[in-house]
């Protein structure tokens, strides 16, 4: 599937075959009004990935036509996120780099009788636009002469009019079945400081008008965007054809990536940050690339997911469980193994004295990773849930009189459970079998269960964090996002971990055996193990 041409590539192949274009250029066009999210990873995969496939170029194009919402902080975060995904851009360009040219093209439209200054308010324009079944009404200002339009437009630019007092509209067709072609506004008066051009301009071009011009001036051959722009394509084409662009960039739309249990709109993500529902844009529960990175998800897994999800025109919603499965597959191959006990119960081996180091396979799926040592003694911790006084049928973990293997170590038999005054088991006393050592087991004893453990004499305290999805599941679908939000989505445990983890590289992902995939970090001198993804698909539980 990965290698068959997708529908975008088929169009590009045709354009190359017909000679309409000779090389390929695309652009990735974020608006710097928030952090990038996993949906943008899909757009990057399409924009950068397609250019790469054809030996072409992809620019980073900041769509900054909306001065009031844009910030330099976001520009920097976007650059960092793209690099993290492993992509690099040919040129970094801004819509605002082209403001002079966009303005000149507007004068060209005016002189050609293709645009006019309109005095109707935004409200009036909306009310005269018509509906899907009725045509719009022509503006009373529609037939101003080019000379008058030019004078008024220049006065708009010089600041002679109040915000919203006038605008420039393309003169297309008020009866067009496509509402976007009913004399759309292409310039508005707006006194707002722009993050790059400051107060130079008090008129700003509208996205639909500016975008085809910016694409053309950058040399974009294929302008790839999401399906909500399909209805805007006739306007995109009108601008290109009316201004005589050759070769005219071709817009192709593909389906957005939607994932269950995730909010992807920047507007909502911003709200979560501003209301302190999460710790920030990079909170590990956030679907932002900064959040996914902080979560410990490798960029490689995100790209793999985009590739497997494919590029199509059909709208769909992908199960978050599928994304998690891809991440799990990746970490299973790449993450070293380690042991930590989430809910510790003391296990004492009564017939063991001294201590020793045992061989521990770093990743059984990656023999090149080799082995390391893990230290063993008579006092260990196991998971509280791995011992039962009253086991259910088919219980393969530890019970009185039962045998289990301690991972990479020995087989033990539980002989006695020590209780506190309240009757809770606080310690399990066991016997071990020296001939049962892993890798050299001559004991002949059968033990079905294998338990992970840590050495109580050398282990360290760790804070273990687990996460639920930020949005409740499908049962809540259709409800407003604020009703679906799960604020109680972080759970903290006091765990005991191998000392080895304390010394491990910051930010590294581990498979904590039988527990899950966790990222190691240190906060205020304390070892923190932060969940990346569960070990098994317990998504539907
Ligand atoms: P949001 O609605 O989350 O703010 P946006 O579409 O406004 O997103 P932009 O910064 O304008 O975000 O988008 C940059 C590019 O990323 C656009 O080409 C847009 O179509 C694409 N994009 C945004 N969200 C997704 C998504 N979920 N799947 C695929 N592409 C996306
Ligand atoms: Mg947008």
Describe this structure in words.
With 541 residues, this protein is an alpha/beta fold. The protein has three domains: 23-254, HUPs (Rossmann fold, 3-Layer(aba) Sandwich), CATH 3.40.50; 266-336 and 462-533, Glutamyl-trna Synthetase, Domain 2 (Glutamyl-tRNA Synthetase, domain 2), CATH 1.10.1160.10; 344-452, Ribosomal Protein L25, Chain P, CATH 2.40.240.10. It has 14 helices and 25 strands. The strands form six sheets. A seven-stranded mixed sheet has the order 10-23-24-25-21-22-11. The mean pLDDT is 94. The chain binds adenosine-5'-triphosphate and magnesium ion (MG). Adenosine-5'-triphosphate binds next to helix 2 and strand 8.
List the topology elements.
Blueprint: H1 7-17, E1 25-28, H2 38-53, E2 57-62, H3 72-84, E3 92-94, H4 99-111, E4 115-118, H5 122-127, H6 146-158, E5 167-170, E6 185-189, E7 203-205, H7 207-218, E8 222-226, H8 233-242, E9 250-254, H9 266-274, H10 289-295, H11 299-309, H12 320-334, E10 337-338, E11 340-341, E12 344-349, E13 355-361, E14 371-377, E15 379-383, E16 403-406, E17 411-419, E18 425-432, E19 449-451, E20 454-455, E21 460-467, H13 481-484, E22 490-497, H14 499-503, E23 509-512, E24 516-523, E25 526-534
Parallel strand pairs: 1-2, 2-3, 8-9, 10-23, 12-18, 16-19, 21-25
Antiparallel strand pairs: 4-5, 5-6, 6-7, 11-22, 12-15, 13-14, 15-20, 16-17, 17-18, 21-22, 23-24, 24-25
